[in-house]
Task: inverse folding
């Protein structure tokens, strides 16, 4: 439960010495910020294109041990439930695409992965530790957010419930 | 008998509450001794009085989102390039400087940066070196606690 209290409230801070923004946590019921980026495989990845599906957004990195442990589960779920409208999207917080691409290949990732950056992370409430997973329902609204190391069985239960 | 059971349950609940409110116990690594660890609350307190030199030895995208005021980015120390960046920053400091290193990318016992950073700075001869004990991650253990942060480069 403490994971969901992460970033409680808004933290007003100076950004880039020029403006003030807030790290505002995303919570169930909210619509996740849109993004459109080129995937590691060169294909476009647009969150809006997956509306109507159950989408699991996974912020991860190759250096994050808990992330690497969890990814094989996501890979298996994608293979098992992709035909039922389930879609995983990986957002790598690695410094370089080469590191992310190598790790994705090593882990046999079978879903699109894009590179994340600080701006996108801030729009998602701050990715101040990995992993962070966000489940989005078929209605395009956030179902659950998990910050930090989370047992896959907990995420799987939520995915199954959203798939119906 | 029933009173005894209720009293025991009440005592257990109180102990759980106290435990939950306290900061997590410091856990040394094979490299970083417990005596070199500093809790977030202690560092937040020191920021108000006599801030140490703070080096963020983790990942740049974490630092760019939010970091401790005054912290210098010098990482990630899980790579040769990051270790070189740390040593370059450290070279500017007197060996007796009061230094705190931190990361917060991952749970403490899974962090790929802290041991390497501590080892490198110790080898350079820094005698007043401490490591910020971040049990879960920077978000939960620093930002979420309301300790000060700044964003940006």
Result:
């Amino acid at each position: 439960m403490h994971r969901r209290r992460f970033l409680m409230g808004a933290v007003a801070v100076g950004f880039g010495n020029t403006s003030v923004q807030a790290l505002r946590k995303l919570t169930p019921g909210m619509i996740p910020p849109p993004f459109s980026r080129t995937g590691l495989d060169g294909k476009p990845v647009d969150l809006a294109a997956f509306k109507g599906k159950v989408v699991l957004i996974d912020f991860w990195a190759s250096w994050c041990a808990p992330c690497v442990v969890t990814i094989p589960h996501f890979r298996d779920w994608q293979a098992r439930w992709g035909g039922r409208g389930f879609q995983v999207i990986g957002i790598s917080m690695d410094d370089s695409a080469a590191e992310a691409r190598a790790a994705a290949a090593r882990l046999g990732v079978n879903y699109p992965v894009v590179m994340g950056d600080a701006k996108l992370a801030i729009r998602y409430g701050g990715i101040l530790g990995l992993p962070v997973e966000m489940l989005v329902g078929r209605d395009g609204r956030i179902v659950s957010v998990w910050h930090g190391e989370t047992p896959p069985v907990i995420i799987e239960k939520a995915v199954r419930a959203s798939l119906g | 008998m029933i009173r005894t059971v209720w009293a025991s349950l009440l005592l257990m609940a109180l102990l759980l509450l106290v435990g939950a409110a306290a900061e997590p116990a410091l856990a040394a690594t094979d490299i970083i001794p417990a005596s070199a660890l500093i809790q977030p609350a202690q560092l937040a307190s020191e920021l108000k009085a006599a801030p140490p030199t703070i080096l963020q030895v983790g990942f740049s995208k974490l630092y760019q989102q939010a970091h401790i005021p005054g912290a210098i980015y010098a990482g990630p120390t899980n790579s040769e390039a990051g270790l070189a960046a740390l040593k370059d920053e450290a070279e500017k400091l007197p060996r007796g400087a009061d230094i705190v290193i931190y990361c917060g990318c991952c749970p403490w016992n899974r962090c790929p940066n802290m041991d390497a950073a501590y080892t490198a700075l110790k080898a350079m001869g820094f005698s007043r070196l401490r490591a910020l004990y971040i049990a879960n991650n920077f978000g939960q253990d620093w930002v979420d606690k309301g300790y000060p942060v700044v964003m940006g480069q």
